[in-house]
Amino acid sequence: MTMWHDPRWIFRLFGMAAGMIFATSCSQVGNTLLYGSEAAAAKDQIMLVRKDPPSFGFQRLATQSSVYPDIQFFVAKHGLPNFLAETGNRDRKYFILYYLKEREAFACRTRAENRDAVEFAGPYPITDREFRMLDDFRRDPSHKPTKL
Q1: 67, CA 20 to 30 Å: which among 11, 58, 76, 91?
Q2: 57-82 pLDDT, tens digit each
Q3: CA torsion angle for 36, 50, 25, 121 (degrees, to 10)?
């Protein structure tokens, strides 16, 4: 059984995402040209996705949607997520799309054999603590979430 077919991997991925939230907190990313590339600024981050005014997470989702048409199709079908988490290694990229209204998230990963294709899993429920922290940050991005 591969990791993708083993349901325990999703808990590891969500645990990693929650760890990223608590370790790095949500924050707005300023001018990424000063601090490195957009990809480096997005790695291991959970980013607010807001269309107007466009947030870094929205810009990053647009970039990833152009690289991975499967993401573009998914967002067209499910709507714009409130948050995008991004991480990866040499072989794969992993994304989590958070939808606060539905209190659910979808996990995505690039396929090893076809790097342009993305596999999706979910929806998975967002915990009450995750929801409160993300919703508070969504309402006031200038206020960094407190660690639990």
Answers
A1: 11
A2: 999 999 999 999 999 999 999 999 99
A3: -100
